[in-house]
Structure formats: structure tokens, C-alpha cells
Biotin/lipoyl-binding protein
Amino acid sequence: MAFDTILVANRGEIAARVIRTARAMGLRTVAVYTSADASSPHVVLADESVWIGAGPVGDSYLDAGRILDAARRSGAGAIHPGYGFLSENAVFAQAVAEAGMVFIGPDARAIAAMGNKAGAKRMMIAAGVPCVPGYEGAEQSDAAMTRAAKQIGFPLMVKAAAGGGGRGMRLVERPEVLEQTLMRARSEALGAFGSDELILEKAIIEPRHVEFQVFADAHGNVIHLGERDCSVQRRHQKVVEEAPCPVMTPELRAKMGAAAVAAARAVDYRGAGTVEFLLDASGAFYFLEMNTRLQVEHPVTEMVTGLDLVEWQIRVAQGEALPLGQDDVRLDGYAIEVRLYAEDPANGYLPATGPVLRWQPATGAGVRVDAGINEGQDISPHYDPMLAKIIAHGPTREVARTRLIRAVKETVLLGTATNSAFLADVLALAEFAAGEATTGLLARSWPDGYAGATKDPEMVAVAVAVLMQHDRDTALALAGHIATDQLGWSSAPVLPRGLMLAVADDIISCSAGAFVGGWRIGVAGEVFDVSLTTMGAGLRARVGEATHDVMAHIEVDTVFLATGALRFSARRLRPGAREDSAQVGGRVTAPMPGLVQSVAVEPDTRVGKGDMLAVLEAMKMQHQIVAPVAGCIRTVHVKTGQSLAAGDIIIEIEEEDTAE
């Protein structure tokens, strides 16, 4: 089992995370990368890097043959799969072993046993681990599923048997929508995991999602490292993770921990794994699934235990025994993590792409940022939109929470949309602050979807002032010296200039004029006096009597601005320029690059506003494209299986005349 070189079969922040620990242990590291990832940090951090494809995951990170070939050519003795991609692929794990290399994780048999939810659930029932009532049978017809659903009762969950991460998982509240839900879940599961097998489970309404970190070695030792509460979720994907669980007691931890260890022993597990449970208000808990890999949220466990879980993985893979027994594990303080995504929460959480123009991760006591991005690289449509994890630790949960809110605000990415404001708002919810969050928190808090921050005229004024000052500084660089105290001076009254700004979907009329020491900015009828002072890497904007610390970046006519947790961009519109819009009247365009999964309408059919038109697959998820207006389908420009770029026209609708 000895090896001195590890190939990391992954990308982004987890690849960089594994490489750092491996190098600290004195091991040689090999990165794999695509053309889309050529400038990513993990490529630079590794001792060697191997190109494995242009970009699409099917021809690169999911291509086991290319990964194994890269490992052979680089002389790697072991492969660390990270999470996602091939990390829970039993066939890949077996191929690694057959190639004479070490797979840093459980063996293929354990992965296969826990990778299928139906089989895993049957095994857990046999092992005495509490499970949610449901159906995990081999008969997969709609008729069999309908019969089982009637026995289970509604509401129930439809889940992909072969995977997780919220893909292929849907809540069914009424019998009449079961057949359509099964069809969509099968399609999403087949695309994500290569299997359309499903299971059904009784829906446990608004439970807590609590998972236990387990570790096992080849010497028969199995322990747990405490729990993580992952209840704050959107579309079954985790948004906030924390350790320990706010309602955990020593007695409940002992019972759930014992069940988690029993689950690992049932498959003769080795390495790092996570056993996930649903915990209801009465204290009853039910096995959900086991993830046979390192979890995205492992840093919260590291921060409360003081352990390096990647180091443990490597040492166990080298044949060493676990360094601690169960009674030696200590939990110190509290840690909370959020995931920074390239997405637009105010626009249905659509994934976003674009350049990383500015990147400044937070620092400070108790703060950790695990990232996989650099300034200058592009956010690709080929991969999951998670960019970084922001984690804070403190002696109490409230200290950890307030530190994390500050860290979210101080972690700045400019160039593409992110969920920063959404994360800060979630952490500030009274229910979360009180430690009372369940899986229904976000749906209750924003039943109509997250609207985002309103367009604050004061911040728009700051954006205009940044543009004006940039214009002036550019002109001064080409001119002779002018004393600072003369800038903005005029013997005549200030004559403001007019300009139009595009902010999100709005066009805002503004004016700008200079005075000594600042700018007089008009925004939609309001007037603001703004002065800007350089402060380190950012600016301090004084607007009237208020001050705001901001970070700004100008790219041609667009200013990207960050203040607090707010991130927005404003584009100056030049006279005569053609303005594009994602939805102009009845013209529907692709909001992001992706693959057309299905088209639901034909020419000459009538649709209502909000009716589904097509399904676009992008960044591993399926996104419904809906009608922005009511009317008649005039032209369908796409077909199933077609690849689209952002802005490509999908469908044109002849809008109904609503005039009375």
C-alpha cells in the first residue's frame, strides 16, 4: 500500500484542498485538467499536471480511461477522487485496484453496496439501522410504483437509487402528479448517474438533516467524528452546514453515532464516509443514505475536531490504523459553512458564467475559505457552479454565525453573479439564528422565491460616481498635471451630464456632475452627493452623511460593485447601441449555456404565462424554461439534444393583445 505520488481525479476547490495536504505530507501530487480549467489553482499547486480533455465532463473528469492513463503516465501510485465525478463509481474504484494503484477511499464492493439506495436500504434494515418506510423493489414500472405509493401514502419522495445531491429527487404531494414526476425523475437520474432506477420513501415533513462523519481502517477500527446539521437546503441541495447539531444531546449523539458505525460495519467499510439521517421533532431518526467519499462540508468537522480528514484518508489508504479511538474524539466549539455559488438567486437560482475579474477571500480569526478559483479565469458552464466554501469557527454558535456573516460580506467575487447576499440573508434569519432550522426553512422564508435586494438608488449613485471618476482619471493620465484641489472646480454652475444605466432588467436614467471633492449624482429623480476615497484594495464612498466600503471593478462600460453582501453590476448604455434582453416580448432565449433536454410545445399552440416550454440541462441540473407571456407559439428554434449558448433564441411567442 505504500505510495509516494497521488493523482487527484478532480478539479476546483477539492482538488486544491487534497493537493495541499498531500504536499504537506511530503507526497508528490499530480493534477488533471481540461482546457476550460487550464488556469485553475489546482493545476498550479500540483507538482505535475496532465491534460485530459477540452471541457465537457463526459470526455474528461468522468472518463475513467483518461484518468487511469494520466495516472500511469505520471507514475502515480494512488488516486484520490475528491467528491462528485468518479468518487462513488465502483467500476472506477475496481479499475484503479486492477491497475495496481490505491484508490483513496472504500473498496468497490462497499461503494456498490451503498451507492444504490434501494440495496443500501435493504442492507440497513437487516443491520437494524432505523429506515424510512418506502419502496425499494426491483419492479420499476409505473404501475408497480403507483401501487407502492398508495401503500406508503402521500406526501412521498421519489429518489434516484444510484445517486444523490438532489438530482432525480422530487416531492410528490398528490397521486395525480406521480406519473409525470416519475418520468422527470428517471430522466434526470439517467442523465446524472447513468441509471434510471428509483425508490419511494414516505416524506418526513420538515425534519432535520443530520449526518455523521465515520472513519474506518483496514484493522477493524470504526469510529465517528460527531455530526453535522445540514438542514438548510434548497431543492434538496445543502446551503448551510454546521457542527455540532443545535439540538443534539449526548444521549442522542451516542444512539445516532452507534447507528452510523453499524452502517459502516455492515459493508466492511474503509476510509472516510458519511451516514445521513432524518431527525424528526420527537427525536426519532431514520437512515437516509451513506456517501462513500469525503463530503463537501467536511471542513466543519475539521474545525471542531482539529483533525485533517484528508490526511486521515491518505494514512488509512497506506495501511495505517486510525490515530484515535472513539473515546479520544473531542468536539471544540462550533463551526458553520456556506457554499458560494455562481448563480443568481433572484432569477430562479440560475447558474451563472463569466470571468473572475476580482477575487478576495475573507481572512481573520476563526475564518477559513476553501476555493478553487483565480482572478482571470472564466467560470465554465461545464461544471457544478460551486466556487468556494466559507467556514467560520467560534467558541459558541452565535460567535461562529456572526463571524460567518462577516466573512461572507468580505469574500468578494466580481465578474459574475453569486449568491453572497442570499447566504448572508439566510444566516440572518431569526429561525436559523435560534438554531431551529429544518429542511423547510427556505421554503417558509421565501415562499415565492428569493427576490434579492431592491435596487438601492444610493448604490446606483455610487456606481455612477465610480464610472465618472474612472473616466476622469483616464483622461487625467493623458493630460498635463492638474492640482487635486482644482478637480471639479468651475466658475460656472455645475452642468450635469445625462446617462442611462442597465441594472439587472431595468434601465435607469441618471445624471452626473462634478464638484470639488466629489460628484453630484441624480438617480431616477433623487440627488446624491458622492465622494470616493481609496482604501487599501477598495474604496470608501461617502454618500451624504453615510459611508460605505466598496470594492469596484470596471470592464469597458460596466462597473461591478460589492458592498456588504450585495453584488451587482451596472452597464452604461451608449447612444445608438443595440440592447439585448434575455426576454424581449415573446422571444425566449437561453439564460445560460446548456443542452436542450426536451421541448414541450409546437408551433401554433397556445401557452399561458408561466407554462413550461422546454427543459435545459446546465451545470448538472435541469432548468425549466417557461413562457414569459401568454400567446401563441410562433417559432420553435431548437430541438432535443441541441447545445445552446447563452442568449440563443429558443422559442418565439406571438403575445396576446391584453388591451381592453
